[in-house]
Amino acid sequence: MLKYILKRLGLSIIILIGVSLIIYILVRCMPVDFVMRRLTEMNQGGATIPQETVEAMYKRYGLSDSSFLGILSGYGSWLWSLCKLDFGVSFVSGGEVVSEIANHMGVSFAVAFIAIIFEYMIAIPLGVTAATHQYSIRDYVVTVLVMIGISLPSFFLGRVLQKVFGPGGLNWFYTTGLENPSLQMNFFEKMGDYLRHIILPVLSTIILGIGGTMRYMRTNMLEVLNSDYIRTARAKGLKESKVIYKHAFRNTMIPIVTMMAGVLPSLFSGAMITENVFGLPGIGNWALQATQAGDIPVIMTYNMFLALLSVIGVLLSDLMYMVVDPRVKLT
Using CB atoms within 10 A as the burial measure, which of 63, 68, 170, 296 is most buried? Predict the structure, then answer.
C-alpha cells in the first residue's frame, strides 16, 4: 500500500503542475484586466493618466508582458513562489491570499457540511424506495421531484426561496448575509439569528445536490437487486426487508464510496452562485468577486486549492474502495 500511495502522490504532483499551467494561461488570457479596472476607477474624474503610470502599474502587478513567452515567464515566477509557500497578495485587498482563504472558508464549510449530511440522509432512502418500487407511482413521483431539483438553476432556486420564505413572503428567514449586526443579542439569540440566515442557503444546496445522489443510489440498487445472490436469498424464503437492507443495501453502498471523491473539495470550495445570491461571505462568493476583478493571485490560489483537494479526494476514494470491497486489490 505504501508503494501504491507514493506512486499516486508522484502522479498527483505531475497532475497539479499541469493543472496549474492550464489555469494560469487561461487566467492571463481572460478579458478581465485588473489594471485597466483600476485605471478606469482612477480616471472617473476625467483626468488623463500618463503612459508611464500605466506601464508602472502593469509592471507592479507582473502583467507587463502579455505575449506567450511573457505568460510562461510569469507562470515560472508564480510556480517558484508557490514552491516557497508564498501564495501572493490579493490585488484588490492587499492582504495575504492564504489569510483571506482562511477567513472565508468557515462559512462555506458550515453550509456544505450541513447540506451534505442532509443530502445523503434524504437521497439514499429515496433511491432505495424508488428502486424497490420500480415503475410504481412512488418511483415516478420521486424521480420527477429530483429531476426538477437537478434542472433548476441555482440562482433561480435561490430567488424563489427568498421570495417564498423571506420578507415579502412568509418572512420566516433572512435572505442575505450571515448575521444582523444592528441587534444586541445574547448567545442563544445570536445562534438563532445565524440559523435564520443560513437555513435558506443550506436548503438550496440540498435541493440542488440531492437529485444526482438519489439517481446514483437508485441505479446501483436496481443492479444489485437483479443479481443472482439476491434471487437466491428470496428463494430461501427470507423476508423482503432482510433481503433489501442486509444483502442488497450493503453492496449498493460500495459504489457510493467513489462519490466521496467529490465531497472533500465541495466542503471547502463553496457554492459561488448560491453564496452570491444569499450574500454570504463564503469562499465561493469571494472567489467569484476576485474572478470578476481579475485578481490573479486569488484566482490561482483558489483553483489550486480545489485541484489539491480533488486529487486528495480521489486518492482517499480509491483507498476506501479497497477497504469496503476486499475483492479490489491495489495491484
Answer: 296
Same domain, 67 and 106: no
Mean pLDDT along residues 162-189: 82
**Judgement on whether residues 35 and 153 belong to the same structural domain of the protein:** no
- The reported pTM is 0.82
The Cα 194–Cα 192 span in angstroms is 5
- Residue 262, domain member (yes or no): yes
Confidence (pLDDT) at 200: 92
| Residue ending a domain, choose from 29, 50, 83 | 83
Kindly state whether residue 27 falls inside one of the protein's structural domains.
yes
Do 101 and 31 belong to one domain?
no
Q: Which domain holds residue 143?
A: 97-324
C-alpha cell at 159: 430567488
The tens digit of pLDDT for each residue in 31-82 reads 877 887 777 777 766 667 777 777 887 887 788 777 888 888 889 888 998 8
165, 196 Cβ separation under 8 angstroms: no
Backbone φ and ψ of 89, nearest 5°:
-120, 140
